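Notebook entry, structure prediction.
Reason for the run: the old model in the group folder had no record of what sequence produced it. Starting over properly, with the input documented here first.
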Amino acid sequence: MRILSLSTLYPSAAAPNFGRFVELSLNAAEATGEVAITRISPNGLPPWPLSRLLSPYKERVGLPVEDEWRDRRVLRPSFTLLPGMAPFLA
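New structure, fully documented this time:
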């Protein structure tokens, strides 16, 4: 079975403990050997210059679009996020 995981909650070099539950859940499902998982973790960033000035986003600006996180491929396309739309990141 093939599974597509689309979650903004997934660890990265900028936030290694962010979305750890999602990561562990996907890893457990994959460990059964019955599923192949494609991980997509969209990276919401405010428009420039805010993406470079606001502390919760500064570290995420440099994340690659395709990443290896703990030996698993993660796609990280970016999208425009207006500040205040995601108050949990502040």
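Summary: DSSP finds three helices and six strands in the chain.
The old model has been moved to the deprecated folder.
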